[in-house]
Amino acid sequence: MNPKQVARQMMHFNKIAFDNTFDSMTVLQEQMEKMIGRYLEQSFWLPAEGKTAISEWAKAYKKGRTDFKVAVDDNYRKVEDFFDGQDKGNNA
Length: 92
Hints:
This protein has about 90 residues and is mainly α. It contains two helices and no strands. It has helices spanning about 5-40, 50-90.
């Protein structure tokens, strides 16, 4: 088997594994966020500033998670473009 094809398949498998793991992690984090939200709604002892701080923290966490996913997808796309460029260079 062609070593480039093996590398492409390994990269593709790695991307699928990452996407599945990331999606699972996202679902888990969203469920925890809902659970904490319900807890905060019932926590009358916590001042509004504390609830606001926790809400802002959750927003920052989501943004970081989204930015990370965008960066990873962009790098996978770069690797795919590299392999596509290698294939076109060999066919010319």
